[in-house]
Design goal:
Structural class: alpha/beta
Distance between the termini: 40 Å
Largest sheet: 6 strands, mixed
Helix content: 25-40%
CATH class of the largest domain: Alpha Beta
Radius of gyration: 20 Å
Shape: globular
């Protein structure tokens, strides 16, 4: 039995999808899927306090500016559980524990001397490369290739069905509320695979700050709100940061009830196997006649409905 620690939610999902959930012995404080994961020892914590979007942004920016990590790895916990493998990433020091943090913690490990599996998911295709990398490291390359093929087939089926759409919907994806940020990295390709036209954010580039006037000028058909690390209820707490912006009520997407809240934390900020679900969610939103809904209102919901019911 291999002893595996995952310090990245998406990596945890990859490890489990490859059949190694029973060999996971530790996780990050953010790993919460699939079921049963939360019983594992926690090996990390955030150095910044929870707060509003603006407060989180300011705290993280200050840490990064000063050259400080935004996460702490518990070297003593790693020593106790003695992993053979530690899966982490070097794509974004804000999103998850970085390679640098893990290396520092591993320097304290004497007994197990774990192999570090470093993932670098910058864009859509990198996600599949990372699945293969984990599979190869854990000795199941063929199982990884099968998983990749299954996920790509699910996504390709959606893309094929949307070929019949004569007018593709134009989409803006918002990844942070204050300050406003677009969604980039793999999200633009997810939108395109679902049959939409992505208006902001570039594939394989990091998300960046945007101006509200830019969104107004683009006049999107659909606005998808997917704050990094937020579920729908958490997003609702701060949705006024959008709805109180000048001209919000006059935006055609708002008038036509084409603003949707999604669970960014579970589906759009994690470059792992559930990106296939993410494409399904977008397709259900954009083309409901082609794709009957199968995801719950905890996964996505129309904004006005969420505000009226407040029951998601």
């Amino acid at each position: 039995m291999q002893r595996i620690v995952s310090l990245l939610p998406s990596a945890t999902e990859i490890v489990c999808a490859l059949g190694f959930q029973d060999q996971l012995v530790g996780r990050s404080h953010e790993c919460d899927y699939p079921a049963g994961i939360t019983q594992l020892p926690i090996c990390t914590k955030a150095k910044f306090p929870q707060g509003s979007s603006a407060e989180i942004n300011q705290s993280v920016a200050a840490l990064v500016k000063n050259g400080l990590s935004v996460y702490e790895v518990f070297g003593d916990v790693l020593e106790d559980i003695k992993p053979d493998f530690i899966v982490t990433q070097s794509q974004c020091e804000v999103c998850a524990v970085s390679m640098k943090d893990v290396e520092q913690a591993v320097c304290q490990l004497i007994s197990s001397r774990p192999q570090i599996i470093n993932l670098e998911p910058v864009g859509y295709h990198d996600v599949f490369e990372d699945i293969l990398k984990v599979g190869q490291s854990l000795g199941v390359p063929s199982k990884a290739q099968t998983l990749i093929k299954d996920l790509q087939n699910r996504i390709d089926l959606i893309s094929q069905l949307t070929e019949q759409v004569t007018r593709k919907k134009r989409v803006v994806c918002i990844e942070w509320l204050e300050p406003l940020m677009n969604a980039a990295n793999w999200v633009p390709t997810l939108v395109e695979k679902a049959g939409g036209i992505n208006l902001m954010g570039e594939e394989a580039h990091h998300s960046h700050y945007i101006q509200w006037n830019d969104i107004v000028a683009l006049n999107p058909d659909v606005i998808l709100v997917m704050p990094c690390g937020f579920g729908i209820n958490r997003t609702l707490e701060e949705i006024h940061l959008l709805t109180n912006l000048p001209g919000w009520q006059d935006l055609p997407a708002v008038i036509q009830k084409q603003v949707y809240l999604t669970d960014g934390n579970q589906y759009f900020n994690r470059p792992g196997p559930r990106l296939a679900d993410s494409v399904e969610i977008i397709s259900e939103i954009l083309y409901p006649t082609l794709f009957p809904r199968k995801h719950s209102k905890k996964d996505w919901v129309e904004l006005e409905e969420a505000l009226e019911t407040n029951q998601v």
